[in-house]
User: What shape does this take?
Amino acid sequence: MAGNQGEFLYMGRSFDSSGAFSECNSDCTGEFSAPGSPISVGTDASGGKAAALHRLLISCAPDNSDEVILGLVSDLETLTDSIDLQRHAVMEIRLLAKHNPENRLKIARAGAVRPLISLLSHPDPVLQENGVAAILNLSLCDENKYMIAAAGGIKPLVRVLKTGTTSARENAACALLRLSQIDEHKVTIGLAGAIPHLVNLLQTGGSRAKKDASTALFSLCTTKENKIRAVQAGIVRPLLDLMSEPELGMVDKAAYVLLNIVSVHEGRVAAVEDDCIPVLVELVEVGTQRQKEIAAATLLRICEDSASCRAAVVREGAIPPLVALSQSGSSRAKQKAEALVELLRQPRGGPAAPAAGLGPVRGMIGDLGVE
Assistant: This one.
């Protein structure tokens, strides 16, 4: 069953995240190849411009005949000493699928999926990069999502995510995102080992890589098992770092992923260990309306079962901005802020109080049930 990427349920309420996460549509391996990309190698100035124009025209062309597509698939499967024929075929297939939904169906039905998947393990970086981009473009069609997964495409995509070129890794992340929009694929992708590599991409990648990784993680971390895998891979620290650097434009994305993560016990423990409370309180104070709402919801979840976390939130000075949010925010933000203020004003005593001698963070973690 296909999931809704734009909404998710949290504490019985629907959160619309569609404004925070841009879709990975067709591949971003441009028709005009960037310098240094494997695809740009081997063309002089005039020949490169002509080839780029040819690729642009292909990507914007109307539907292509079945004979043309069958011929390209045949070339893709050709076993020759020269890989030039395969390079040409996979680039043409990638471009034909880039903007045209009908071509995506024709290409998959012509038998292109399995040979494209085999290219994901090819040592030639041009074949691999175009292969993963073609898989991404085909995965925009729901029918093809099932076909790619059934043909064994998930594990090779995870390998590309680990070892591919920069562009290949970004497109692999987008392809896995698209496949994860089928609910049963989320578990398969998690079991294939994608989560640690997506966390690594989130932490070390460039701007586009971080956005692609965060969007894929947001989709995958709607299952408990994947949330735990993400925590074990160290997701919380890079999320908090991104939330603390608004100039990167990643605050909303990181905050939504963190909200997913703290819905499991392991996520709440990791968030407290990584000192999430000051970051979240600052968002309530100075963030956008959307960021204030997400931060309040996250703090509410962390504080529900922990008197020490509630005390730490109060010490950070959260009550004044929460009161302000309860008076001037959106209806959902007001509800979250009011619920959190009421929770923070409850007496601290009882069995949730930390054992004597524990430091502040250890006390909060003890509150959450960890020795």
